[in-house]
Amino acid sequence: LVEVGELKGAAASVDADTRFNGGSLAVRGLSMAYGEHEVLKDVDLTVRPGSVTCVIGPSGSGKSTLLRCLNRLVEVKGGDILLDGDSILGMKPEKLRRRIGMVFQQFNLFPDHTALENVALSLTRIKRMNKDAADRVAKARLAEVGLAGRQHHRPSRLSGGQQQRVAIARALAMEPEVILFDEVTSALDPELVKGVLTLMADLGRRGMTMVIVTHEMGFARRVADQVVFMDEGRVVEAGSPEAIFDRPQSERLKRFLAEVL
Ligand code: ADP
Ligand code: MG
C-alpha cells in the first residue's frame, strides 16, 4: 500500500515522535435542538487528556451534532462543556477553534490552493503568523503526515486519503489541545482508509486528545480508550472497547452491533 508506505517514511522523522500535550473535555447535561427538534438530550461525557474516544451509533443519533457543539459550530441549548476545566460556552468561537480542531468527512480543503497553502493559510489568517513562519510549520506538518513530496499539489491531484491527511496536517498546525474527527474515512475508497486510520492511531499514541465519530469498529476496538454508543440523542453506553463490544448491556447496543459487525 503506497499510502501506508508514505506514513512509514514520515515516522522516521523527528517530528513524528514528538508528544502532544492533549487537553481534557467534560460534557455535562448537554442538550441541543434544531428548532423544535431535540437532537441531544442530557449528554454526559468525560474525555481524559491524551485519550482517544470513539463515538459510534446509528445514523441520525446526534454524533455529528455532538462534535459541532464541542467546537461551537452550533450553539447548545443547555448544559455545559469544559475544556481543561473552563467552560467553552463563553469563549469566542474563533479562539476556541484554535484549541479544538476538527476534520470532516469531505476534507473541506480550498480547491484552488496547494496542500502547502491549505495548511499555511489557516496559520497566517487565524494565528497571524508571517508567511515564512507559516510555510515552515506547514512543511513540517505535511512531512509528519507523509506528504513532504506532495506539498505543491492541489487537492484535485491528490487521492482522497492524501487530501484527508492534508486536512489532518492543517488541524495539527494549529497546535490544538483536542481534535474532533467526523467520519473522516467514510468518503474514501477502501484501499485509502488504512493510511488515514494509521495516522490517527499514531496521533493517539503520541498523546493527542481525540474524539472520533467512526463506523470503523475494528479501529475503535484497537485504538479507543473509551467507546461511546449514542442513540436518539443520548449516550446509551460508554466504556472500554471490551465492555462495549464484548459485554454490551442494552438491547439497543446489542442490536446495533449485530447490524454492523
Ligand atoms: P449523526 O451524525 O449521528 O448521523 P446528526 O447529528 O447529523 O446525526 O443528526 C441528528 C439529528 O439532527 C437528525 O435527526 C438530523 O436529521 C438532525 N439534523 C442534523 N443537522 C440538522 C440541521 N442542520 N438542521 C435540522 N436538523 C438537523
Ligand atoms: Mg454524522
Automatic annotation (TrEMBL):
Chief place where the protein resides: membrane
Annotated keywords: ATP-binding, Cell membrane, Membrane, Nucleotide-binding, Transmembrane, Transmembrane helix, Transport
Membrane topology classification: Multi-pass membrane protein; Peripheral membrane protein
Domain named ABC transporter: residues: 25-257
Subcellular location: Cell inner membrane; Cell membrane
Family recorded in the similarity comment: Belongs to the ABC transporter superfamily.
UniProt protein name: Polar amino acid transport system permease protein
Organism: Inquilinus ginsengisoli
